[in-house]
Write a structure and sequence with these properties.
55% of the residues lie in helices and 14% in strands. It has 861 residues and is α+β, with helices and mostly antiparallel strands. The chain is globular, with a radius of gyration of 34 Å. The two termini are 25 Å apart.
């Protein structure tokens, strides 16, 4: 039987090619993700190990491990601690690491910022062994007015060695510097997203930066890292702030690399979900391929039974074929994974998250074993049912002519129909159950979607006939015999056509779901702004060394300066901070200037009203989740424990969404009494009706020119950012699902190719009766088109249905007030592309069918 199995594989190698390619692509997807993860992890370890190569022990401030920008004042590690570390036994050398705020102006006179983050400054250690950056051009700074700049910022802002720089410190003072060199920071933690200056200790002190975030030490010969860390702990025991730590050099490298690799792992886990989808689609293709091959080899299997093969041997031979195919295709898939790794690397570089390249591509034995094992397991699992079918072949079947592909009998439709109806009903029920639960209902809806899809999978053979007749009726009337033949071919074997189209349904359904959800999210965000916060501009502070416990604020006089502009009709500051409510939960608390309620702030509420907050006191509006936690409703009282005052407030309104990001809203007067804010957290602006957009924006920009740490965003900018982010997200989803869709197209091509072989005699008879080569080609192409359209339409139907459920859940969780948005043009495009892809998949099978000799085809038995 082994020789027979190997001979069968060799004889049918071309018939198995498409299913093998499906495994190659899906396993390549999995392997590429795993290889990329290993490569990224090794790269980060290599990079941070190099940074900590000469560090045997380190004294860390409470903030050092989590954020290199100092976020407490005064400095957690005083200057005197460096001397204590240097005097400790076993220390050969020690350097303090200084990091602080340094906002850099570009050549146009504007601060360089990434979002609301400005730049940082780091010190250049006197001992070069502790230097954690490399010089790419120029030289190290030698005086307090010289600086290095990170290479990325220099490239994007067009700075060159010899240029003059201007830096803003945390106190708002400007400092002129001269650029003497460019530095490559590699993947230094949390620094790649900001402009980074490297200065001497004198330069750092000139910016008001004192103390250390970390003190690194190198050991004398013969002193271990653990021993040095123990001695440093004793040396700084009385001065180390609470939350600080002394760690070994290897622990420092591990902590630095681990925090970054966790972020990469999170992203790649999401990518692996799409790889699993691709494997599922590949399993459907393999299942269909083996089913077809078993049908075509009925006489061969029956002959084996006649000459003594047992049912167990027949079953084992089919599984052996699947094992051999799975192992071979998975091995090739690992090689394809190397190319996918390169594609993922290019993707990360394109979004500004380039990975370190020092370690090269890492292919671990674990990755190879997982990829090959997973691909083989999926292949074998998909072949179990066809293998069992092979054991049902009676020996006498060798004496009969093969039957035509049977249509699904009415008696065999009842049970699958009942099962499918039950599964689909359960899926819909779960989706409906998740609707009122807000975001917590998304998992329920995901399970409901999976159950519903299984129901569709069971019902798909029952759907093929009606769908094929519906889609083929009008073309059949207009295009004649080839289309009518294609329609009949599509539903003559509904199980085969269903398995072929359902693979395409998966990809189209998921991308449709994502499209509906993202389109709804965009329209919901727009409606929230237009209906509840109808502003034209929002002014926000930039972070420049502010502590996390005290978020940055805008100057108090900025609102007055904006109000003086005639182009602006409403200027309303807002404030935000955190406080404990009723002693149970720490909550973000916001407040709006009374002017906001006249036209820039109309918070959505599900019960009560916020009118009392405009000028009154003693009231509070809560988000519904907070109200549920506190077990209160409108009219009940809560206690606000603010830093400067504790007071009882009456709940006047409850909202299903936040108040510009805050969980609770109080009056401006109560906020001032309880928090005594240093300044507003934002300013809402509405332009005067008579002012042109250009004039109102110019008015805002002119005022903000005097306030460098204030940035403005227009509503148009906000909407463009949302649209751009959603388009990018859809592009990523589409790219990841493209592999699954490509596998499905291989399935269509494979099914049609095997059908051509199966229908060789039938094709010859049709040609003998007058069907031309072109008409035969059109018949196969139209059949491929029908399969593509059926898969696309079914996928769109599922995607729209469950996309609507997910969208409605998100809308309810966000406060409602916005209808579901259906991107009709995009969805229609998916159906069209599915049909065109089906035609493309049928090109080669159609050409092969047309080349068959009429005489040879009729003589086929």
């Amino acid at each position: 039987m082994l020789r027979t199995t190997l001979a069968g594989l060799y004889a049918h190698k071309l018939r198995l090619l498409a299913s093998s390619l499906a495994i190659v692509l899906s396993v390549g997807f999995v392997a590429g993700t795993l290889i990329f993860t290993d490569t990224a992890t090794a790269g980060f370890w290599h990079e941070f190990a190099a940074q900590a190569a000469h560090v045997d022990a380190s004294v860390e401030s409470p903030a050092a491990a989590g954020n290199p920008k100092r976020d407490t004042a005064p400095p957690p590690l005083p200057d005197s601690m460096l001397a204590s570390v240097r005097q400790a036994p076993g220390v050969a050398s020690a350097e303090g690491r200084m990091v602080g705020p340094a906002a850099l102006y570009d050549k146009a006179g504007k601060l360089i910022a990434n979002g609301d983050q400005t730049g940082v400054a780091i010190d250049v250690p006197a001992d070069p062994r502790f230097q954690y950056f490399s010089l790419t051009s120029g030289h190290l700074p030698t005086g307090p007015t010289e600086a290095l700049l990170d290479y990325n910022t220099a490239q994007t802002s067009h700075f060159a060695v010899g240029d003059s720089l201007t830096v803003l410190d945390s106190a708002g003072a400007r400092h002129p510097l001269r650029l003497v060199g460019l530095a490559d920071l590699g993947v230094a933690k949390n620094l790649n997203d900001e402009s980074v200056l490297a200065l001497t200790a004198g330069g750092m002190h000139a910016l008001g930066i004192h103390g250390y975030d970390r003190i690194d030490a190198a050991a004398t010969p013969g002193t271990s890292q653990a021993a040095l860390a123990s001695r440093l702990s004793a040396a700084v025991a009385g001065a180390l702030p609470a939350g600080g730590a002394v760690v070994t050099g290897s622990k420092l490298a591990h902590d630095l690399a681990d925090s970054v690799t966790q972020q990469v792992d999170l992203i790649l886990t999401g990518i692996l979900v799409f790889a699993v989808v691709a494997l599922f689609v590949a399993a459907i293709v393999i299942l269909n391929t083996f089913n077809i091959l078993i049908t075509q080899r009925l006489r061969q299997l029956a002959l084996l039974r006649c000459v003594g093969a047992t049912t167990r041997q027949v079953f084992a031979s089919v599984l052996l074929e699947s094992i051999l195919i799975g192992v071979a295709a998975s091995a090739v898939g690992v090689l394809v994974g190397l190319g996918i790794t390169a594609a993922l690397s290019a993707l990360f570089s394109g979004i500004g998250a380039a990975l370190p390249a020092g370690s090269g591509i890492v292919v671990s034995p674990r990755t190879v074993l997982i990829a090959i094992g997973l691909g083989t397991a999926v292949t074998v699992a998909a072949a179990v049912w066809p293998a069992w079918r092979a054991t049902r072949v009676a020996p006498l079947a060798a004496l009969r002519a093969p039957d035509a592909a049977p249509a699904l009998q009415r008696s065999r439709r009842v049970l699958p129909g009942v099962i499918a109806a039950a599964l689909c009903a359960a899926g819909v029920g779960l989706a409906v159950l998740g609707l009122p639960k807000g975001r917590n209902g998304l998992l329920i809806e995901a399970v409901g979607g999976a159950v519903f899809f299984i129901g569709v999978l069971v019902a798909s053979p029952l759907l093929v006939g009606p769908l094929a007749r519906l889609l083929g009726w009008l073309p059949g009337k207009l295009a004649g015999m080839p289309t009518r033949l294609a329609t009949a071919n599509a539903y003559r074997n509904p199980g085969r056509s269903a398995a072929t189209m359902i693979a395409l349904t998966v990809g189209v359904g998921l991308i449709t779901l994502f499209s509906v959800v993202t389109s709804t999210a965009r329209s919901f965000a727009f409606s929230q702004v237009d209906e509840h916060y109808p502003i034209d501009y929002m002014v926000l502070p930039l972070h420049n060394g502010a502590a996390e416990s005290a978020p940055p604020v805008l100057p108090n006089d900025l609102a007055g300066a904006l109000r003086a502009r005639s182009q602006l009709s409403i200027v309303a500051p807002t404030w935000a901070d955190q406080a404990t409510l009723s002693g149970k939960t720490k909550t973000s608390i916001g407040a709006f200037d009374p002017a906001a309620y006249t036209g820039t702030a109309k918070p959505p509420v599900t019960s009560g009203s916020v009118d009392a907050l405009a000028n009154g006191t003693g009231g509070i509006a809560l988000r519904d989740t907070v109200a549920k936690t506190l077990h209160v409703q409108v009219g009940d009282a809560v206690t606000l424990d603010a830093p400067h005052r504790s007071e009882h407030l009456r709940v006047v309104a409850i909202s299903a969404s936040t108040f510009l990001g805050d969980q609770a809203l109080i009056s401006a007067r109560d906020f001032a009494d309880g928090f005594q804010p240093a300044g507003p957290s934002s300013i809402l602006i509405k332009a005067a009706p008579s002012a042109a957009p250009v004039a109102s924006r110019a008015a805002v920009d002119q005022v903000l020119a005097r306030y460098p740490l204030a940035s403005v965003q227009s509503v148009a900018d906000y909407k463009n950012q949302i649209t751009s982010a959603i388009n990018s997200l859809l592009a990523v989803f589409g790219g990841l699902l493209a592999i699954a869709i490509l596998i499905a197209l291989f399935g269509i091509a494979n099914t049609l190719s095997l059908s051509v072989i199966e229908r060789t005699r039938e094709s010859g008879l049709l040609r003998a009766l007058g069907l031309t080569r072109g008409q035969l080609r059109r018949t196969l192409s139209m059949e491929a088109l029908l399969i593509g359209l059926m898969g696309g339409l079914l996928g769109v139907a599922i995607g729209v249905g469950f996309g609507s459920a997910v969208s409605e859940t998100l809308i309810r969780g966000g406060g409602g007030g916005s209808p579901i948005s259906y991107p009709v043009t995009m969805i229609a495009g998916y159906v069209l592309l599915a049909g065109l892809a089906g035609i493309a998949a049928g090109v080669l099978p159609a050409r092969r069918a047309a080349r068959i000799s009429v005489i040879e085809a009729i003589a086929e038995t």
